[in-house]
Amino acid sequence: MKCKKCGGVAVINMRHHRLALCADHYLDWFVTYTQRTIEKFRMFGSGDRLLVAVSGGKDSLALWDVLLRLGYQADGLYIKLGIEHQGYSDRSLDYVQRFLETSEAANPPRAPRPTQHVLHVVDIKGTYGESIPELARRTGRGRGKPCSVCGLVKRHVMNRVAQEGGYAALATGHNLDDEAAVLLQNTLRWQTGYLARQAPVLEATQPGLSRKVKPFCRLYERETAAYALVRGIDYIYDECPHASGATTIFHKELLNRLEGRSPGAKHSFYLDFLRAKKKGQLLLPAEEVELHPCEKCGQPTTAPGLCAFCRLWQ
Ligand code: Q46
Ligand code: ZN
Ligand code: ZN
User: Fold this and answer.
1) Ramachandran region of residue 214, left (φ > 0), alpha (ψ -120 to 50) or beta?
2) Mean pLDDT of the chain, nearest integer
3) What lines the ligand 1 site, CB under 6 Å?
4) Looking at the CA of 294, which ligand is closest?
5) How close is the Cα of 177 to the center of ligand 3, in Å?
6) Of 84-98, 246-260, 273-287, which one has max mean pLDDT?
7) Structure confidence at residue 70 (pLDDT)
8) Residue minimizing CA distance to atom 5 of ligand 1
9) All domains of the chain, ordered by start, with CATH?
10) 150, 156, 158, 248, best to mutate for ligand 1 pocket (most atoms within 8 Å of CB)
11) How far is CA 200 from each of CA 133, 164, 179, 216, rounded to the nearest angstrom?
12) Which ligand 1 atom minimizes the distance to the CA of 243?
């Protein structure tokens, strides 16, 4: 297959865009497409300081790389969960640190960058006294799976670091496959509250809440993987050992079968949903939850007194 731009050997064929590209043109296309997504959903502007949540996986490292290439002031945040199975946490942090060491040289920005980027590392055990698996065991939450505790802790820490650092937005590497799988999950169960909230930008509706953005929400997982590969970004291939068997993986498989039959299915499933929502064609409930600051940490919460995060550590 040939590159549509230069006739060279194509490294990827994106059937839904009817576009095959060579390595150089693909890297260019990917960066430009991300910038267009940032503008389309008014995620942030050129002067904004961003915090990128990095896990050591392909999506988050590719996102950090692209934001730096676009000239954004983007710092990283790695949360060390303390997952010891096959050294998962240590190994994933190694990948992030290696990326940081090489990224200055590898990222001559398209636009001049004001200052150098930094990596914040929050070690959960070092900071709060217990790793995620230990915390899940002690609190008995999640029946052997630490994911619910993990999600709660990650959300709290990301919000805290974004607030303390005065970042304009917290960017995560969620891609189109992630978003489509969540949409399918929420639709199958008609979770109208979640559907109302699912968006590429979550506004900071309360003082103490950070704005959250997903610049890769229009990019397929195979496209972010191809970007990382062509760009030579070394990332951890293994998923977190607790991710296996998750319902999301099953829904992703279903969507992949659909996509195989009808290229572009995931893209239209997710983007047509956003479009219909924007036009007011979906009557979803407006959020009416009342939040107040947690007595201990000050983060907004619906719970009386302490927030769910602070209650975990009591
Ligand atoms: S990191 Fe944490 Fe995930 Fe691992 S323990 Fe579960 S939630 S699977 S994104
Ligand atoms: Zn080309
Ligand atoms: Zn709290």
Assistant:
1) beta
2) 92
3) 81, 146-147, 150-151, 240, 242-243
4) 3
5) 32
6) 84-98
7) 96
8) 147
9) 30-312 (3.40.50.620)
10) 150
11) 30, 23, 9, 9
12) 8
